[in-house]
UniProtKB/TrEMBL annotation:
One of its GO terms (molecular function) is DNA binding. It holds the Pfam family RRP14. It comes from Ridgeia piscesae (Tubeworm). Residues 108-118, 180-196, 339-357, 365-377 have a biased composition (Basic residues). GO terms for biological process: ribosomal large subunit biogenesis; ribosomal small subunit biogenesis. PANTHER family: SURFEIT LOCUS PROTEIN 6. This is Surfeit locus protein 6.
Length: 377
């Protein structure tokens, strides 16, 4: 009795833990839980299953879509995602996958049984002694792998024929179906190739995969400059300083020498007027456009272009006023320094004279005390 009660309690605890774990797993969204291979299997299963396909009433709007104007397959799938009845949890999807796999196995077993019956009827009694274990060794035996490859080939041919038949009646909505079928055919081809590789590995004849030779970068030849020296980088920096000399009086209107800038702007203006007089408005317009493009490019590079004559005149006047102010301040400062210097010198002279007089007075007083008669005192 004790052992049976313990077993019942253990089962209850295990069932409670199992339900709790399932509930926790169901909180995870399926697109985060499953890997890419499982997602492909689920996608194939969803395409084959009738109950998971979008229903006619899901997401339909009678006012917007009439019977003549039907929704595309992509739009149906998109709207079916928002239907709460179509949403499945992780455990439900796992159960459906297990059921789908079991149904596929049963279908394959039935096909093998039918094929086996045909071979027994046509061949001799020796074929009747074939072991039944070949029906269940889909993933382990050689015969099952060969049969599965044949089944995949048959399915692939059927899908290709169906795709070719549907290509004749193409419309805007059937393009989605065409893409879906093409994707499915490519997946089936991939499965077929993997199955054949597994079969060859079991037989001991693995398909030799072509080894990718590493792309050897071509060895760069040594580059020599004009002087015959090897250049180790892509750019020859030896000719930067001595090659092109800077143009004197370049057209770049930058800096704080407003007088020269104003002269350049006035010269440019005179040049435009001369071109307008000689070549007409067209040549002057092209030259003006060229100048405008130069200024735009310089501004794009971050250069502060000063080409406004009025602003230049204002800044020049301001600079001259500042210069006059600074000169006046400097003059006042020098005068003030000179005055203070003179005052200090005069004070020093007075102090020296005062000290001399005090010394003379001391000597006279001493001599008077001693009884010496000093003339003039």
């Amino acid at each position: 009795m004790g052992t049976s009660l313990e077993n019942i309690v253990d089962r209850d605890v295990i069932n409670a833990d199992n339900t709790f774990l399932k509930q926790m797993i169901d909180l995870i969204p399926p697109h985060f839980y499953f890997d890419n291979d499982t997602k492909e299997e689920i996608h194939d299963m969803l395409e084959d299953a009738e109950e998971w396909k979008p229903k006619k009433g899901v997401g339909s709007n009678k006012k917007r879509h009439s019977s003549s104007q039907e929704l595309s397959e992509k739009a149906k799938w998109k709207r079916a995602k928002l239907d709460p009845t179509q949403l499945k949890t992780v455990t439900e999807i796992q159960a459906k996958l297990m059921q789908h796999d079991s149904n596929e196995r049963e279908g394959k077993k039935q096909k093998k049984k039918k094929r086996h019956k045909k071979t027994t009827e046509e061949d001799s009694d020796e074929d009747e002694k074939e072991p039944d274990s070949l029906e269940d060794d889909e993933d382990t035996g050689l015969g099952s792998s060969i049969d599965s490859c044949e089944d995949l080939r048959e399915r692939l041919r059927a899908k290709i024929e169906m795709l070719q038949a549907r290509r004749k009646n193409l419309s805007r909505d059937s393009n989605v179906e065409k893409k879906r079928l093409a994707r499915k055919v490519s997946k089936m081809k991939l499965k077929l190739r993997r199955k054949s590789e597994k079969q060859n590995k079991v037989k001991g004849q693995s398909i030799p995969t072509p080894k990718k030779t590493p792309n050897k970068s071509p060895v760069a030849k040594p580059v020599f400059n004009k002087e015959g020296k090897i250049v180790f980088s892509k750019f020859d920096f030896t000719d930067v300083d001595g090659g092109k000399e800077k143009k004197k009086g370049s057209d770049v209107l930058t800096g704080k020498n407003y007088k020269k800038l104003l002269e350049k702007v006035e010269k440019r203006k005179e040049k435009l007027e001369k071109v307008r007089e000689k070549g007409g408005c067209g040549a002057a317009r092209t030259l003006q456009k060229k100048i405008q493009w130069q200024t735009v490019l310089q501004k794009a590079e971050g250069v502060k272009v000063r080409d406004d004559p009025e602003l230049l005149r204002k800044s020049l006047k301001k600079k001259e006023k500042l210069r006059e102010k600074h000169t006046q301040e400097w003059k006042e400062r020098t005068e003030r320094v000179q005055k203070t210097k003179q005052q200090h010198q005069e004070k020093r002279k007075r102090n020296i004279q005062k000290k001399k007089q005090s010394r003379i007075d001391k000597k006279v007083n001493r001599s008077k005390k001693k009884g010496h008669i000093i003339p003039g005192f």
